[in-house]
Amino acid sequence: MVNKLSFISIVLLISFTSAGKNDVYRGFTVHGIKLIDQSDVNILRELVVNLDLDVWSHGAVGLRDAVVMVAKENEAKLLHHLDDNGINHYIHLADVVKALDEHDEVISKWRRRRSGNMVPFEDYPTYEEVNNYMEGLATQYPNIVTLVNSGPSFEGRDIKYLKISTTNFTDPSKPIYFMDATMHSREWVTTPVTLYAMHRLLEDLRSDERDLLENVDWIIMPIVNPDGYVFTHTDQRLWRRTRSYRPEISTTCYGVDANRNFNISFNTIGVSSNPCSDIYPGPAPFSEIEAVYIRDIVFEHLNRIQLYLNIHSYGNFILFGYDDLTLPPNAVELHYIGAVMGAAIDTIKLPIAPHYLVGNSAYLLYPVSGSAQDYVQYAGVPYAYTLELPEFSRYDFRVPPEYIEQINAETWKGIAASARASTLFYTRRYTRNSV
């Protein structure tokens, strides 16, 4: 006979072992919200802060629905406010835990089917796999590739990137294309895009793309936020922020929205003072070492970085500054190059994905402060963009791995087109700087 203490122990053991990493989202629901006019956007923006909503997609007025996740205790308030203001809404996910568990199983089956034949850019790679891939490229192509370690993250993980150049970054007549990914750690599909760019420049360089290697230098950082990225694999799939810890501010809340932590209009709009919020900007500009590394790369190569691409997911947007509803002096050129990128991607997009929208981020989406895109533009890089990868309506962040190859291919097509288009303007800039 099992005594009472043993029985309790068995029950506790079963409860513990049956709980998964996604159980933290127990009771959460995700809602689609129709945005008919700007007043709907303004109301939603207030609800995001007041009800601590997790915004999955900001949508676009009259074109695309917003998508938000809400905790059980705030769901009734959210729906009540939407109904009171005549805003149409619907359930996107009634059971977040079930949806995430099912996606985990989809990924597991994908890996089992392709066991032994997987490369990192065809999968959702781990932090270690990403670093191993970059190290392998640096070893295989020592005359073209330099592996750089920016330094440690808050938790001590190396933040590495590749410099790809046929002239070892010594030729000032060549522009630099700087791209990064996974600033928001849950946006897993962004990392394979950067690895695929490395692959196309090095392992699969095609005759009609030799100009991209020979005439452009590249800086590619696949994981800006490794602490958060690892955390999404081990603890909370939908974690967005960094993992910095400041007990003098909060003993229970970790991290900062790294894309609100740059020193431009810092902590003025599109942020929350709640240190637990996903849009908390941090106690000061560049409080996050991850943002500091982006800043340092920009200033190290400021005279030559021609285009900066901050890759996110999801929504099919190509966005440029400024986020305070003002435009840079070269807004026409910014829009032109963004349109070239979007049009190139759209030529091979899947029918289920909408066409890319190109424009000012504040007008198309919402005003924010402290974004990487705005800071890099203001610092002096001519063309700085936020790229929001494809939106496959029902999949949100749970993009099936079968789609990774398509996203890589179409995004590379856009990257190549934007590199060539921006290079056309570099001769003018180089000549002016050389005088």
Low-pLDDT residue intervals, each spanning 5 or more residues: 1-18
Strand proportion, as a percent range, falls in 15-25%
In spatial order, strands of the major sheet run: 5-6-8-7-9-12-10-11
Rg computed from alpha carbons, rounded to a whole number of angstroms: 22 Å
- The outline comes out as globular
* Topology as a string of helices (H) and strands (E): HEHEEHEHHEEEHHEHHEEHEHHEH
Largest sheet: 8 strands, mixed
Derived structural class: alpha/beta
**DSSP strand count:** 12
Instruction: Report helical residue fraction.
Output: 25-40%
- Helix count, DSSP H or I runs of 4 or more residues: 13
Q: Separation of termini?
A: 91 Å
Mean pLDDT: 92
Task: List the SSEs and their pairings.
Layout: H1 4-18, E1 29-33, H2 38-50, E2 54-57, E3 66-70, H3 72-84, E4 89-93, H4 96-113, H5 127-140, E5 145-152, E6 158-164, E7 176-181, H6 190-202, H7 210-214, E8 217-221, H8 226-234, H9 289-300, E9 305-313, E10 317-320, H10 331-346, E11 357-360, H11 361-364, H12 372-379, E12 383-389, H13 404-434
Parallel strand pairs: 7-8, 7-9, 9-12, 10-11
Antiparallel strand pairs: 1-3, 1-4, 2-3, 5-6, 6-8, 10-12
Task: Provide structural commentary.
- The chain is of the alpha/beta class.
- It is built from 13 helices and twelve strands.
- The protein has helices at residues 4-18, 38-50, 72-84, 96-113, 127-140, 190-202, 210-214, 226-234, 289-300, 331-346, 361-364, 372-379, 404-434, and strands at 29-33, 54-57, 66-70, 89-93, 145-152, 158-164, 176-181, 217-221, 305-313, 317-320, 357-360, 383-389.
- The strands form two sheets. An eight-stranded mixed β-sheet has the order 5-6-8-7-9-12-10-11, with helices on both faces. A four-stranded antiparallel β-sheet has the order 2-3-1-4, covered by helices on one side.
- Helix 10 (331-346) links the parallel strand 10 and strand 11.
- It starts with a helix and ends with a helix.
